[in-house]
Amino acid sequence: MQFTSKQRAYLRSIAQTTDPLFQVGKSAVSPEVVGAISEAFNTRELIKITILKNCPEDVKTAGITLAERTRSDLVEVIGRKVVLYKRFQENPEIILPRK
């Protein structure tokens, strides 16, 4: 999904006040991490993840890989934090601004 600048800014503002749920470390983007994040998308639409310094992958590469494997959208990569968004199919909690 391609976001407009307003939609991306709106999601970034929500993510700014949330704490990271997951940390990706030296095991990089393992199937266990992907499974846990996918499971978290059952209860949340927006997830913030910290990529630790001992992760062998680049932060942006790890974010893109996580988005692809969890079938979510990469909202932003800022510093060592990654924000992913996956809209609920029924009754979305986050209503994005119109295009």
Sequence-ordered SSE layout with sheet pairings:
Elements: H1 5-16, E1 22-24, H2 31-40, E2 46-51, H3 59-70, E3 73-78, E4 81-85
Parallel strand pairs: 1-2
Antiparallel strand pairs: 2-4, 3-4
What does this entry look like structurally?
The protein has 99 residues and is α+β, with helices and mostly antiparallel strands. It has a single domain (5-85), classed as 2-Layer Sandwich (Translation Initiation Factor IF3), CATH 3.30.110.60. The chain has helices at 5-16, 31-40, 59-70, and strands at residues 22-24, 46-51, 73-78, 81-85. It has a four-stranded mixed sheet, with helices on both faces. The mean pLDDT is 93.
Structure keywords:
RNA-binding_domain, RNA-binding, globular, 99 residues, 3 helices, four-stranded mixed β-sheet, alpha+beta, RNA binding, 34% helix, Translation Initiation Factor IF3
